[in-house]
Every structure is written in C-alpha cells, then in structure tokens.
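DM between two lab members

TW: hey, do you still have the AraC family transcription regulator protein entry open?
JB: yeah, one sec
JB: this one, 286 aa:
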Amino acid sequence: MLTAAAPVPDTPPAAGVRHQRNHRDDLVSGRRLHARKSHALRNVGVPQLLIVGVEEGHKRVYWHERQYRGGRDDLILLRPGERYGIDNRPGAHGYRAELIQLSPALVADFRRHHGGLIDAALQDTAEIPISVHRDRHTGQAWQSLLAAIEEGAPAPLLDQHARTLLLCLTLAGAARALLPGREAPLIQRVRQLLNDDPGRNWNIDELSNLTGMAASTLRRHLSAQDQGFRTILEDARLSAALDSLQSTRDSIGHIAHAVGYASPSRFAIRFRRRFGISPSELRAAL
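TW: and the structure you got?
JB:
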C-alpha cells in the first residue's frame, strides 16, 4: 500500500525510466519502463492522467510536501496540472513499471456517463488519492488493459477496457483523482496545443488563431492565471524531451532539436534547472 510519510522539502526528487512500448492511440497509450539505477527528477508534470503499476522495485511520490511510497500492491495516479517528485528505486533486478496514460477526453466522457456514481463516491473522502490498492477487481481490469495495449487491440476495445479500469478505480475510492485539474480551461487548451507539437516554431499570433481569440486577449488571460506563453511553451518542450530521453535511444542533440532547442548546451541547462538532473545523467541511469 502507498502510505504517507513525513513532510519533505518543497523541491522533492523524482525519477524516470526507459520507455519500451510506443504510444498507439490518442485516447489510451501504454509504456513499459525500466531503470538500472536509482535516480531523481523534480517538478515533473504529466499532460494526461497517468496510472503507474510498479512491478519491480518501488516508487516514492512527493506531492504537496508529503512523501508517499508505493510498490507492487498499488496503482499510482498522477493527475495533469500538478507537479510531482517521483523517485524510482530498483529492486534486486532493477526497476520496472507499467504506465498507462488516458486522455482528458476519455476521462471527461467517463465522468459524464457515471456522474451519479462519482458524486456518491466523492462524499466518502475529501482527499485526492495518490494511489489505490490493487484489489482483485482493480488488478484484473489493469491487467486486461495492459494485455489489450500489448496485443494491439482496436481503439474501441482499448476504450472499453480503460473505462472498466476507471470504474474500478472509482469504486476503490479514487474518484477525486478523476476530477478536472485546477488549471483554467484556457490554460489546459493552450497546454494541449503546445504538447501536441512542442518542436513547432510557435508564436503568440499563431496560438491565438487556434484558440479563437486575439493575441492581446490571450496574453491577458494567461497573465491573469500567472502564466505566460513562453513559460508554457518551455514546459511543453522540456516535458516532451524528458519523455524522449526515457523512451528512445535518440541522441541528446537530436532530442533537443526535435523539441525546439537550437543549442544542445542551452537545452541541457534548461533541463537541469527544471528537473534537477542533466540529460546525460538521466541517460546514464536508464
């Protein structure tokens, strides 16, 4: 069971591992991750609901000045719009985890279809869960979705398996983890656009056309949310770079260029500033 421990500093560590299964659907995607060594990243965000099942070793999650530890008996839930520290600790045979990412559209549609059930579940707890115990039903739903992704099942079957897992998570007490994030809808929309193509040569005028509002209005709305276009763009680029470093064998220079950085050295500086580890140090631990 993932259990709360003592409060930790404001900038906790996190870790990433190698990505061995490619995304194959916009609504549901899966990853198999491995690491040889313990290593840490901080300030990690996820663009979509991410569900993690650790199979070897254990994971520590740092969130809101609290530390949580999870292992094989848990499913760990990371929500978009939050920043986490995730410290992955290998066991005797390294660190291994399965990750499933569910799109905001799928989760929102599930909430619409099961609003009554979710509302009832919300009455039982005020806390947003970081993890859910893998009881028999949740464990079966998790394994079924993993198998469907591995076998290349058609999108409608992946969708159905994902909804079954969401239903099990709701019944297991994780309803609050499925609620929309704290960010305003406009910020979420901007993040989605930039996350879809982080290497693009974005400018505020192009983004304003896609959001259907004037550039000055867009800037004003972003500023009202204590956000800026350049800040959100860099967040999208560094998050995409983190994923590529974990999931591919592409060179660091290639990844830097692919996410929009002309200078690999400048990219490395920005990456370390954000995550607390350099790209080369991260690669050495995978």
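TW: got it. The longest strand covers residues 28-35. The longest helix spans residues 155-174.
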